[in-house]
Structures are given as C-alpha cells and as structure tokens.
Amino acid sequence: xxxxxxxxxxxxxxxxxxxxxxxxxxxxxxxxxxxxxxxxxxxxxxxxxxxxxxxxxxxxxxxxxxxxxxxxxxxxxxxxxxxxxxxxxxxxxxxxxxxxxxxxxxxxxxxxxxxxxxxxxxxxxxxxxxxxxxxxxxxxxxxxxxxxxxxxxxxxxxxxxxxxxxxxxxxxxxxxxxxxxxxxxxxxxxxxxxxxxxxxxxxxxxxxxxxxxxxxxxxxxxxxxxxxxxxxxxxxxxxxxxxxxxxxxxxxxxxxxxxxxxxxxxxxxxxxxxxxxxxxxxxxxxxxxxxxxxxxxxxxxxxxxxxxxxxxxxxxxxxxxxxxxxxxxxxxxxxxxxxxxxxxxxxx
Amino acid sequence: xxxxxxxxxxxxxxxxxxxxxxxxxxxxxxxxxxxxxxxxxxxxxxxxxxxxxxxxxxxxxxxxxxxxxxxxxxxxxxxxxxxxxxxxxxxxxxxxxxxxxxxxxxxxxxxxxxxxxxxxxxxxxxxxxxxxxxxxxxxxxxxxxxxxxxxxxxxxxxxxxxxxxxxxxxxxxxxxxxxxxxxxxxxxxxxxxxxxxxxxxxxxxxxxxxxxxxxxxxxxxxxxxxxxxxxxxxxxxxxxxxxxxxxxxxxxxxxxxxxxxxxxxxxxxxxxxxxxxxxxxxxxxxxxxxxxxxxxxxxxxxxxxxxxxxxxxxxxxxxxxxxxxxxxxxxxxxxx
Lengths: 348, 336
Known about the structure:
The structure holds 2 protein chains of 2 kinds.
Chain A: H1 4-11, E1 25-36, E2 39-51, E3 56-60, H2 67-75, E4 83-92, E5 95-96, H3 102-111, E6 113-116, H4 120-123, H5 130-142, H6 146-159, H7 165-168, H8 178-190, E7 196-200, H9 208-225, E8 228-233, H10 236-242, E9 245-250, E10 253-259, H11 260-265, H12 270-278, E11 328-331, E12 334-336, H13 341-345
Parallel strand pairs in A: 3-8, 3-9, 6-7, 7-8
Antiparallel strand pairs in A: 1-2, 1-4, 4-5, 9-10, 10-12, 11-12
Helix pairs in contact in A: 5-6, 6-8, 8-9
Chain B: E1 4-19, E2 25-41, E3 45-49, H1 56-64, E4 71-76, E5 79-80, H2 86-93, E6 96-99, H3 113-123, H4 133-143, H5 160-172, E7 178-182, H6 190-207, E8 210-215, H7 218-224, E9 227-232, E10 235-241, H8 242-247, H9 252-260, H10 302-306, E11 312-314, E12 317-321
Helix pairs in contact in B: 3-4, 3-5, 4-5, 5-6
C-alpha cells in the first residue's frame, strides 16, 4: 500500500520549483550518445532551443539527424543503455528535468509534456481495448474510478472526432483504421491536459487526405488549449502549412533556425537550401530537382568541422576544420551554422 | 502518339473471403481491382496514384504476373498475359520488370550484389551467355551509378538509396521494355529521393523504357509522369495528362486528394482551396452502390446511388472522368 502522501504527490500534477514566467520548454546544449559495439554514435551534439505556449516549432531533418532522439530525451524515454544523455539541460518552466528523480519525471510526462508517436499501431497496446488504455491514465494519474475514467475516455474520443465514440471505445486498436488510430493516440496524449505536445512524425504513415484531417485536428486543439507544439518531421510541405518557427537538424546539430516564412523565402544554410531545391512540388511542372550529392554521415564518424561540408557546394577549406561553425546571427530570429551564410542567402 | 506497349482490358481481381478451416465456404469478395482499362505507350511514364487500399499494389502484381486476374486481359506485344501458362509466361515476364518499394526487404541479405543482379541471367540463360554475365553485371552497376568494385558486397553495406539502385539494376538486367515501379522512392529520405528519380528519368531517355509508376505521393508523380490515372476503391476515377489531372482536375476525389497535398510554400497557407474529406475509404469487400466515392462526396445526389458514372469525357471534362457532375476546379494553386 502506498502512503497517503505518496498518493497525494501522485495526484497533484504541479511540479515544485517551476517558474510560470520561464519558457515552457528550454533545451540547452543537449548532448546524447549511443554506445554501440561499432563505436559511440553521437546522436545529438549540443542542441539548444525554446518553445513557448501556443507556438509551433518544427524540427526538420532526414532520418538519423537526431530529431526523434531529441524528442525522446525531452520525454526521458531513451533506452539506456545504449543511449546516454551526456550533457545539457532540459528545462520545463525553469526546472531542469535532467536533475529530477524518475518519479518526478513521470509526473511531468503526460501531465505537462505529452508525445504522439509516428506509428500508432505499435504505440498502442494490442491486447487491451482503447477504453482500458485511456482509463488507465486517469486511474493512475488522477485516481479516478473505472467508471469515471471511461466517461472521460468517451469525451476524449469525441474531442478528437471519432464517430460513435460510445461504441468504439470498447474496440481494440487493430479495429481502427490508420487515421482513427492516430486520433486515439492524440486523445491519449491530450488526456491529462499537457502544456506541451511533441508530435514525432504524426502523419508520416497516413494517406494524404487523412493527413490533412489529422493536421487540421492538431492545429485546432493546439489553438483551443494554447499548447506548445513541437512537430518533428521530414516533410517540408507539412511544415510550411503549420509551423511558426523551424529548426533544421543535420548530423545531431541544429544548422539553421528561422521563422517559417523566412526559411522558405531565403534559406541561410546550404543544407536547407539544397533540401528545398530537391523536393518535387505538386503545383509546379517541369521543375529541375537539385540533387544533394552523397549521403548523410554516419553518426559514429561525423566529419571534422561542418558535418555537411562533404556534400556542400559552398565548401571551402575552413569548413573542413574543427571547430564546426557556430550558429551565426543572420538577422533577428534567424541563425545559421554556416561560415558563408551571406553567400548562401545571396544578400547584397 | 507512339505505339501501345501494354494494355489492360477490364482487368478484375477479386480475393475471396472464406469462412471455416476444413469446409471453406465463400461469403464474399474483396474487390481489389474492379475493371481497369489502361494503355501504356512506348517511352512514356504512366503514374498511378491513390490512397492505401485503392488497389494500386494489386494492379502492380497483376501486371507483372504475380497474381492471376479473375477476369480481363493484359496485352503485351499482342500476347494476353492472363492466358499464358508455364514456359510462355516465364519468357513473357522478361519484358516487364518490377522495382519494389522497400529496398531493405526486397534484396536477399545473404546474397552479394553481384549474385542479386546476375540472378535474372540464371533464370533466363539465353539473355546473356554464361561467360558474359559478370561483364553485364559490371555494366549494369555502372549504369545505375554504383561502383562496380562493390560487386562482392552485401545489401546491408549500402544505404537506402544505393539499395534502390541495386533493385533498379536487377530490374534492368533482362533488358525489359516496361518497368513497373511500385512506390520506388517512398522509403527514401528527401535528399535521396531526387537522386533516384533523376536516375529513373535518365535511364528512360537512354534506354527508351516505359514506366508504370505507382505512388501515393502526388508531388513525386507530378514530377515524373506524363499521364496520370487516379484510383479509388479498385477503379480508375480519372485519367489524363499530368496537366489535365493536376491543373484541371474534374473528379471530386482527385480534387480532394490534390487539395490535401501540402505545398512547401508557407505563403500559400490559407490561400488554397482545402477540401477536407470526411470519413475513411469504405471497405472494398462491400463497396457503395453506384459511384463508389459518393459516401464521402459533397456533390453526391440521387443519381450517384443508382447509376455508376462511366469513365468518359463529359461536357465539362475534356479528359475521362468517372463523375456525373465532372467539372474543373483548380485546387493546388493559390485562389485568393
């Protein structure tokens, strides 16, 4: 039996020491590595950013750039070993989560910061009904009874616009279609009214018409609740539709930060520029696709200097030498980790 | 237009739904492909788009002969592939090769690249004489932009894009006229996608190949296809040149599909005609009567329930569109 005080802390979602005026989430110089048999893979090498309430920050990058690991580090769900957070701070309202106990972090997970995963089928438990999985949250975190929890579960399914929620709540995950399953995931993440939602490729596994439904739903819910949203994706189309600010990642570093309109109009890093030129667009015919030569580097052997230099068309000798380029201030709100950002932008 | 290299006539594939283990009884069909007429011309790329479950992968399997059609025919060089058997089919397959979606599972991990690319020559020994296969494999690897010195490496030693190149080299080995690409770039990162798409285009120009390009990504299809067929629940609902389909779509489903594609340009945010469809695709085991799209269509009327609209030109649609109320609506460009 748990003592009364233990139950009290478990039911009370407020975290001691938080400052309501501090940024909702501030990540500072985060470093994560995976110690594997073939060597140490440096997945994140000093990543810093901030998110505030009501804001959508997109983290954009290709597979292996560290965008999902960033999300896992914030949530505290990196498999360890082999993964280790080796440095930095993850501050929720001024409180460094990395210094908190497991139990305190568990309180924050779901209550304050929640996450939506890419593949809803494998993120949901196949042997329990949706009702059970949603009710469990309320029972464990809010001490509700089964009946009350189920009532809330039905409300949540209604909120994410699942038709006939009262009946569907008793179904198993496999009985839902891909889009409906993702809605269940969203319902689950919103259950405890988090202030920050991290969506890791929420629509990658879905068809375009369903993707549009889900993104519209996420956008509406975020506005209603004034949540902060971190959208992790590789899809530059989705980002253009919903993000306020973008962080572009490459080989475990942020290479460019900019508001969404600026980045598409005038990228300041050669990688961003090349990415934008290599995507086909549905509304243009006969555009030339610019190919980025070569491959992203192995995280076990990240090149010295700028990690993008072997594939870069602006490369010069200084790029190939350590230390890697810092994030230069380009304009207010825009930073680029390229020595030659002026050339990349083509500013006069 | 150039000659037709492949034609399907009323192609149908039903998968029976059965009950029981010992005494199986049939109680229905999944109508995966339900009457498809397509023509592929020499040197052209025909894009086939649609959402999951619309039957595009079944269509691919039928075309390469991995599934036998329930009825209808697939005519290549005057031969009906649906009626061929055994040895004839084996020879005929040579002409249509397949590039598969997932370069991680479509290559045997225990075979070297050389073995993978030369395997077609073992099955079809008359294509290249025994002594020449190694030389041919070298040529093929070079053709797809791989280093021929890597002939003894295994698939896991390559990246996703390189693996897809191996798959393309294997498909080219028997000098086919037609290559069927089933989602060839959807498993790849954006920066790698462009490399593979450019390679496919170069090979087409060099070798005069005809492609059937199946994909769910409409931007990719726009980039590569000359003509596009839009599928919904086992049927083609609209077909036309890429400009007709993308800039002047007349079927409501095509319009909804196109309007849902995000465009990488934030200045268009809120300035595009967004049609958000309600609900999911109905089950292909029990498709709606009349027009199959009517359950999600905002134009649906009485006639749509009773009469299935034929795929044909309409007063307000120059190209074939299977809608009683086919009418042009530009959904991908800024409207205001």
